[in-house]
Amino acid sequence: MSHRSRSSISATCPRTLLLPGALLAMAAACEPVTSPRTGSGGTQAVHGPGDPLPLLTSLQQRSFKQGNAMFQTTFTPATGLGPLFNARSCAECHEDPVVGGVGDEVETHATAYHGGVCDDLGRIGGPVIQDSVTPALHAVLGIDQEPVPLEATGFGRRTTPSVLGFGLLDAVPESEIVARADPDDRNGDGISGRPNRLPDGRIGRFGRKAQIATLHEFTSGAFINEMGITSPPEPREQTIRDTPLPSGVDPAPDPELGQAGLDATETFMRLLAPPPPTLSSFAELQGRKLFATVGCTGCHVPVLHTGSSPVRALSNTTVFAYTDLLLHDMGPELADICLGQAEPAEFRTEPLMGVQYKEVFLHDGRAPSIEAAIQLHSGEAAGARDRFLALSPLERAALLRFVSGL
Ligand code: HEC
Ligand code: HEC
Fold first, then answer.
1. What angle do CA 386, 389, 391 make, to 5 degrees?
2. Is ligand 2 within 6 A of the CB of residue 334?
3. Residue 223 CB–ligand 1 contact under 6 Å
4. In 3D, which of 85, 126, 128, 88 has the Cα closest to residue 107?
5. Per the omega criterion (within 30 degrees of 0), is the bond before 97 cis?
6. How far apart are CA 373 and CA 367, in angstroms?
7. Distances (CA, A) of 183 to 88, 233, 325, 350
8. Rounded CA separation 85/132 (Å)
9. Which residues lie below 8 Å from residue 62, measured CB to CB, with a gap of 6+?
10. 349: Cβ below 6 Å to ligand 2?
């Protein structure tokens, strides 16, 4: 739940791109407007935050609305919540400034890393530590949260990201991601991204460690891990270590959510448009150039292309996500847990799409500003960080201005 003020985006000039006439009328009152930027919404038509993608059929628009309602559905113990959980609805966390956006919840993940081998502690409740329990479980075991596993060698704090535009990321073909991998840094630029390849050979792209391959799988995973809601792909409750739950603490019959509910939630995220483009000022345009010059685009690749999709709105289009969806070694300061092939110091390039909604930055929110986040870039990103720090104050301000509008 968020009670934050959003002062950082309540500027005097509207940030949403308006129709050309209105844009001209505003230009006088606002800072100099040169040309509308194809922002994180790419070439798609203008929309507001939280809107569906353009070009949807009326059936898809209906599914989007139903999915939005599902994403906001609050679960109770009677409808399956818990017995271990972090929150009662998807939208309790992903909520700001609209349903599907960022949230101020920070959760704890834990895994064990032994000599290059990562154990996600799947046998004993998995990497997500649930910080709440239902009254029924509390009454029997007297606990208030999932006990932290003694086997864990690392803990990671995770802030709640926005999922606006993530259907487009899901639609990017693996070949586009693999094409940018350079694990041995053959081009000598100091950046050696690699995909988080899952045991079945697919490429992970969701989560800070790119540990999950598809929105489809993230959806059922989020229901069980965040709310203790079982579904056909995840039919078993979270347990406390490897012991079965005491009987009677979770009366709702499994699966607590049917396939239709899962599909609706997934469809909502799939069809959510990216954050709308913001107005372009001269400083932002200069900042965009500097973003490339100092090498931020070595990882925060401005545009990815989707493949063909049965959903027209997702098919063969672009997404201005500012990520390569690859893992990069960010140095020992940021290192926390392993997940799959991702080592403790490796993180997926965080998409900057939606960064305009954040008030704290990096995976655990330790950076209070975008500038602080850049200063904490190390490892493969040390070169870009140093080139950023070598810019003049005006140039730095322009770059920050550009990033803060994404
Ligand atoms: C308790 C807060 C919380 C709740 C409830 C929650 N999420 Fe999340 N969500 C998070 C956090 C934290 C992450 C980041 C996980 C990570 O980095 O590995 C995340 C990540 C995601 C991502 C991946 C984003 C990315 O950057 O790749 C998706 C998709 C997602 N959540 C969907 C859902 C859905 C669907 C639901 C409801 C079933 C849900 N979430 C419920 C906190 C929450
Ligand atoms: C070597 C790859 C790489 C380069 C180069 C790089 N970044 Fe990043 N960036 C990342 C990764 C990985 C993360 C996620 C780190 C984390 O969450 O701890 C990240 C996170 C960020 C964040 C925080 C996003 C959020 O939502 O919390 C910002 C802002 C950012 N980068 C801006 C920049 C800028 C500006 C530059 C150029 C000066 C740059 N980055 C260069 C890989 C890179």
1. 115
2. yes
3. yes
4. 128
5. yes
6. 5
7. 40, 33, 14, 18
8. 5
9. none
10. yes
Contacting residues for 321 by C-beta, under 8 A, at least 6 apart: 40, 165, 168, 169, 274, 301, 303, 304, 351, 352, 353
Q: What pLDDT was estimated at residue 281?
A: 84
Distance set, CA 95 to CA 101, 344, 358 (Å): 5, 29, 12
Structure tokens at 100: 């599907």
Check pocket membership of 326 for ligand 2, CB cut-off 6 A: no
- Nearest alpha-carbon partner for 370 in 383, 387, 385: 385
User: In terms of Cα–Cα distance, which of 243, 240, 242, 1 is closest to 144?
Assistant: 240
| CA dihedral sign, ordered 121, 1, 405, 42 | positive
**Res 207: pLDDT:** 98
Tokens matching residue 25: 């009328």
The Å distance, Cα 105 to ligand 1 centre, comes to 10
48 in Cβ contact with 395 (< 8 Å): no
- Evaluate whether 351 touches 210 at the Cβ level (below 8 Å): no
pLDDT digits (tens, 9 = 90+) for 359-372: 999 999 999 999 99
**How close is the Cα of 144 to the center of ligand 2, in Å?**
35
Summarised one tens digit per residue, pLDDT across range 46-63 is: 689 999 999 999 999 999
Q: Which residue has the higher pLDDT, 40 or 190?
A: 190
Residue 162 vs residue 5, higher pLDDT: 162
Q: Smallest Cα–Cα separation from 188: which of 390, 329, 380, 397?
A: 380
Atom of ligand 1 nearest to the CA of 71: 37
Question: Residues 166, 272: contact at Cβ < 8 Å?
Answer: yes
Pocket test for ligand 1, best of 68, 94, 170 (most atoms within 8 A of CB): 94
Cβ neighbours around 187 below 10 Å, total:
10
